[in-house]
Every structure is written in C-alpha cells, then in structure tokens.
Amino acid sequence: MADLLEQAEVDAGTDAARRERFPAGAAIAFSDLEEAGGEAALDRLRDAEPVSWLPALGGWLVTGHAQARAALSPRAATTVEAEQNLVRASLGRMMLTSDAGEHTRMRAPFQRPFRMREATELFGAAVADTAAELAGAVAPAGECELGAEFAAPYAIRMAGRMLGLSLGDAGRIDAFYDAFAGAMSYDGNPEPQRLADAARDELNAILHAELERCRADPDASITSQVANDPAAGLADPEIAAQLRVIMFGAIETIQGAVMNTMLLLLRNPGAPAAARDDPAALAGAVDEALRMIPPVAFMERWTRAPIDIGGVTIGAGEFVGVSVIAANRDPAVFLDPHRFDPARGNARHALSFSFGEHHCLGAHLARLETVTAVGRLLEALPGVRLTEVDEPSGFAFRRPQRLRLAWTV
C-alpha cells in the first residue's frame, strides 16, 4: 500500500495572499456548502472563480464543470490516498480511498455484476418487486414521509438483496450510514467521527458474521461469490471494507436520488403525469434530478505534485474539493441550468457519479433502482403532491431531510 499523503500546511502569509487573489472564495462560508440555499453562492463563485481558494475549507474548491473533470481525471496529479481523507476516516481503507493498482485490486472482484446488462438481469426483478411492495404498503394511508417510509427501506432492502446480506432492522442500518455521512464534513467537530467509528464497529460485526454464513452455506450472491473465491485476493477485513462502501452508495445515493427526483417532479406541473405515462420522460427526469440535486454533492482530492487546473497553479500536497452541485449547473455545459428539463439531451454529462477511475461502480443499478421506484410511486399514489419539505441540504450528501407527500385514496 502506498504511504498516505500528508496535507501541506499553508502559512498565514500564503493564506492572506490567496484571499486577496480569490475574493469570491474568501467570502464563502462553510454554511454555503452545507445548508439549503447555498447553491446560489456556489453559482456566483463558479462564475467569478471556477477554481478558488476557500479559507472555509482550508483548501481549494473547483466549481466549473471542465475544471472539475480535470481535477478528477486519472491523468491529473491528484490522489485520494491522503491522511486527511474524511471518507477514509469514516468508512475505512477501501476502493474509494485507494488509487491505481490498489484501487483495481479491491474493485475488480465486485465489478462484473454491476455492468449494465448484468445488473438488469441479476437485479431487475428484485428491484421491481421491492418497489411495488413498498409503494403498495404506503398507498392505503394517503400520506407518508417519503424518506423514512419508502426511500430508506427501499434502498436498504435492495442493498441487502443485491449483496446477499441479512441486514435486519432497516432503521439501524440507516442510522449507521447517517453516522458515516455526518463524519464527512470539514467543520472541525470531532463528535461525528466518534459516532462514525462506533457505527463502523457495529456494522463490521454484522458483515463478518455474514461472511462466515456465506462460507458455511454458499449462495449466488455477490458477497458469497467473493468470499468463496480465493482468486479474489481479498482478506475478510478488506471484503468487509468494500461491502461498507458499496452499501453506502446503495443506501445513501438511492435514498437521495428517489427523494430528489420526486421533489423536482412534484414542483413542476405536468412533469409527474409525463413521467408516469412515458418511460423516456421518466428516465430523463431521473437523469435531470441527478444533475440538479446530486446525492453526492462533494468530492475530495489531494495533489501529489504541483498541478494547473483552469489556469490556477496548485502546489503539492494541497486539498482540492470538487463541488458537484456547482459543476452540474455550469451554464457552459448545461443550457439554462436551473430549469428542470427531463428532455435535456446532455444530463448524463453531469458529474453525479464522479469521473475517471473512481466513477461509481453501481451507476447503472442506481439509475435502474431510481427509475423503477419513482415510476412505481407515481403509479401507486394518484394525485400525489408535496405537503411538507425540508429543502435539500448536506455537505457531502444532499437531499431533503424530510419530504412529506399526500395523495388520493
């Protein structure tokens, strides 16, 4: 394993000079990156300084689409293998916090089932059945809180079926991943990391017990295949680490994608009916929602060597954050970017599933799950409407914390 990079310290003089050179970045507060409504500040920053020094982060923030692709490119002198990587601190050492050969070694045993055709063949029926069952369960009530009563149970149940894991209580698993997400914030508070460490220990106990079960009684699941394949080359703690991050994507991203898509559809008259009646409109609505409110809103890198991004020279060992929200709303790529347009032809050019070697392993399955869930909800809940909304928020992961719906029974 490569030695972890130690983030370079920036002295007061350098910080002052950068604040003067990048006044728009210096004016950004951490709350602009985390709280609802901060998108407007990020738009202004992107328009003025698409690569900027942010004292609030203690590093650089990239908000332009082209500049973000450059920072995430495998050809860039950037890395995730840094001591200060908060994803690593929260979820541990695994494919998402490793580069090059080590990344490939950890990812390869899990890759095939997530390809487009394999994902549809392996999981399509389970996705449809699970969405129908949960939508049918909430329909008679005439109202629900979408996250707690549909999106979270749906995401957790599908994660378990996909990986062949007996995850048990959905609320407990959701709390683990809330703790992991909460630790991925550069606000200096140590308490979220303590909660994430405790959650990781509890989840590890569940995952190691599942590995033992898979060896005692092998099945066709992804977990069983990897656990029983000596050629996979992963020790049990490494398998558990990959399962943690795959589950994180399968739970947090899907929950966010379903909630964000429903929010945008229901705020645009005519869009729900169009999506319900036309599969192409439904798929387009999901892609557009992923662009406008990306469930993964922030990505982090560090520079192994000096690098030029968008005409800005960044020294070795520095932190470079990518605002996916801002990059996905760059008018240089997306015409009229604040308009929800399910017919947008280039919505998939968004960076919601990252770019380069760390492009999301489960992107195809995530789209399938979200399209299926939203379609089923629109069919099962006639006249569905919003009744209460917490505007989307979150630093690393973005969605409404509460989204209440009502419909005709």
Word description of this protein:
The chain is α+β, with helices and mostly antiparallel strands and 409 residues long. The protein has 17 helices and 10 strands. The protein has one domain (12-406): Orthogonal Bundle (Cytochrome p450). A 5-stranded mixed sheet has the order 1-2-8-5-3. A 3-stranded antiparallel sheet has the order 4-10-9. A hairpin with a 2-residue loop joins strand 6 (307-309) and strand 7 (312-314). Helix 8 runs parallel beside helix 17 (363-380) and helix 9 (146-163) runs antiparallel to helix 13 (236-266).
CATH superfamily: Cytochrome P450
Identify the overall geometry. globular
Radius of gyration: 21 Å
CATH topology: Cytochrome p450
Q: Approximately how much beta-strand content do the residues carry?
A: 5-15%
The level of helicity is 40-55%
Unreliable sequence segments: none
| Total beta strands | 10
Count of individual domains: 1
SSE topology string: HHHHEEHEHHHEHHHHHHHEEEEHHEE
Strand-pairing-aware structural class: alpha+beta
Can you identify the CATH class?
Mainly Alpha
* Strand order, largest beta sheet: 1-2-8-5-3
Number of helices: 17
Distance between the termini: 58 Å
* Major sheet attributes: 5 strands, mixed
Mean pLDDT across the residues is 93
CATH architecture: Orthogonal Bundle
